[in-house]
């Protein structure tokens, strides 16, 4: 080899500056190799150009084929879309084997003149991005470039004069050689499919190659050799698989707002495409929605949220899903948490921390783990945990590209996990708020036997604003309430709490149901106005609710009800028949300007009253009408306890996956016995007070309540005297022996008394103060005909 000349067996090539390579042709002007630059100039891909005459592609006859070893000229090259340009081109003779015709390299010149020499041949053999080799009729290699030797894993000295089997092994080699023989036999070029082979120099690494074959023709137009151009598709395929996996991660991870499920989705995606076993460990606080410590975690006490393996039931897992494990300071998990950086262990010897744990060492030996990756689960500057990827069946160890892919997948999962954590925290807060606002147990009272159920909707919807309540009233009466605030989340729960408190406050004033709903309507309007004033978006001001309010009197057996846009209540009569009560609808709360109407019905002893929210009767699986029919069917003939009936109705009506909250309140009414109530008409005469006291003492004696006689005499004396002095006729006294002793004085005046502090020398003003001190509680109730002043006192334990 002398300066400027490169010799190969049977080949004499003179080189120079190649400029931009375009194509390689055989001696007859047929394309055997086609570059990207040529594709851009002409608009044809390599698969479309190889094997065709260059004159058809460039639009000019190959003048250089009959000329000297080098030819310079300008060609008018036309693009498929119609544009044409003048391109300076140089054709260089590459030479050929003994008895074979030469190849020609076409290059676009970047200078008007350039020197001849070894540059062109040097580029072809060392820098050409295409792997090119020439095989003779016996399938022996006679010429190749550096890219081909790199793919084959051999040097030119080793492979010149050898066949493919000297460098490659696998079934793909036989397929490749069969195609080369077919090209020699038919003289037709072939664009090859993907073949899988391994090299003798690296038998553990599979290569995916695409080989394009073109015939080299002799003087008699017979095929005397094959030009092979090879593309290693592993890199391109790897990039495609990487993009596909990242795209799938965006779709398949984070489909729910559940921390455990999101962790499992991450593991499911990575096995077996990236690893043979994946486990995800998270900081324990994450599962409860608590805020993890800011910055990098210093400890290594983690809870396993996901395992996934190529083997059934993940037998490799040392820690089951849901358990907590402690990782020592020298472990990969602890190091990953402390530094916030990923780590790659290509061999077991690098993972010394595994060998210090006998249980993990046994698993490594049993399943053949040989490579590890640890990736921190970081989101918004907070460390949430660690994901670990392991390989056993994959013969190749993890590479830097694998670690980069794992980091991107985990990063996307980390955001979903943090979103799930934040949702869990908000939902937990909303549930805690709601539970604190809903009754934990129903109050003790004699008017009804009641039971209730509250069932939240789907977790991703957030907590709703449904509520129920049972409120004891004066005179042994009881108020039954059910309501539903529009929307979900903390806003709905907070609004529900305010409305429930308002209902209890208004009920304590003993307002009729229609008046109570009117006051509640005003409150919702004010809440919406306040929310609109302080809200950052208009959605926050959309506050609305429905409500049903019922008051049952066990003395008369009558129930007074009013509703504000709420579903009709159902009643089951003692004979087992069920029906909906016909009540005026009333507008939903928050509209304002429209009246509410009360309806009074008589409920026989043992009747069952059912109050509920629309989430019980309406869902995606059934409309309202169907839901009401099913509700009445489940309630009909039911003589079970309200608690058992609640379970029966809920199981029958509610689907497994609810789209809304549901609340149900069942109350079986009771009536007080006639001997538990005593009533006297009182003349408007102060002298009648002493006689009234005597009647009271006698009644208490009949009830075996003599211990309460002294206080009751004082209370009755003060209340009756006030009614005679400041009220109007008719005046009536009523005693009720229930869980407590209730004293009621009814008169025809609507003026309500109030407490005041009497001065030292005042002759009056101490009556109500005395009543308040001697009894448990007292109050007034406005009626259509006047008012009721009542008080309650505890009965002796043995009564």
Number of strands: 35
Give the low-confidence spans.
1-18, 112-117, 536-541, 758-764
Strand order of the largest sheet: 10-9-14-13-12-11
The end-to-end distance, rounded to whole angstroms, is 126 Å
Query: Any idea what the shape is?
Result: elongated
Annotation field: number of helices: 21
Radius of gyration: 46 Å
- Overall pLDDT score: 81
Which percent range describes the beta-strand content? 25-35%
Helix content: 25-40%
Main sheet: strands, sense, barrel? 6 strands, antiparallel
- Which structural class fits the helix and strand makeup? alpha+beta
Keywords: Hydrolase, Plasmid
InterPro entries: Bact_Sigma-Reg, GAF, GAF-like_dom_sf, HATPase_C_sf, HATPase_dom, PAS, PAS-like_dom_sf, PAS_4
GO molecular function: phosphatase activity
Protein name: SpoIIE family protein phosphatase
Folded structure, characterized:
With 799 residues, this protein is of the alpha+beta class. The protein is 32% helix and 30% strand. The protein has 21 helices and 35 strands. The strands form 7 sheets. The chain has a 6-stranded antiparallel beta sheet with strand order 10-9-14-13-12-11. Helix 20 packs antiparallel against helix 21 (767-774). The longest helix has 38 residues, at 400-437. The radius of gyration is 46 Å and the shape is elongated. The protein starts with a strand and ends in a 5-residue tail after the last strand. The model is unreliable at 1-18, 112-117, 536-541 and 758-764 (pLDDT under 50).
How is the secondary structure organized here?
Blueprint: E1 5-8, E2 11-16, E3 20-25, E4 31-34, H1 36-42, H2 46-49, H3 54-58, E5 70-78, E6 84-95, E7 103-108, E8 116-117, H4 119-126, E9 131-136, E10 141-144, H5 146-152, H6 156-159, E11 168-169, H7 171-186, E12 190-199, E13 202-217, E14 223-232, H8 234-252, H9 259-270, E15 277-283, E16 301-309, E17 324-326, H10 332-339, E18 343-345, H11 352-355, H12 358-367, E19 371-379, E20 382-391, H13 400-437, E21 448-455, E22 464-472, E23 478-488, H14 490-508, H15 513-534, E24 545-553, E25 558-564, E26 570-572, E27 578-580, E28 599-602, E29 608-612, H16 614-617, H17 624-635, H18 642-653, E30 662-669, E31 677-682, H19 688-702, H20 709-726, E32 731-737, E33 740-747, H21 767-774, E34 777-783, E35 786-794
Antiparallel strand pairs: 1-2, 2-8, 3-4, 3-7, 5-6, 6-7, 9-10, 9-14, 11-12, 12-13, 13-14, 15-16, 15-20, 16-17, 18-19, 19-20, 21-30, 22-23, 23-24, 24-25, 25-28, 26-27, 26-29, 29-30, 31-32, 32-33, 33-35, 34-35
Helix pairs in contact: 8-9, 8-13, 9-13, 13-14, 14-15, 17-18, 19-20, 20-21
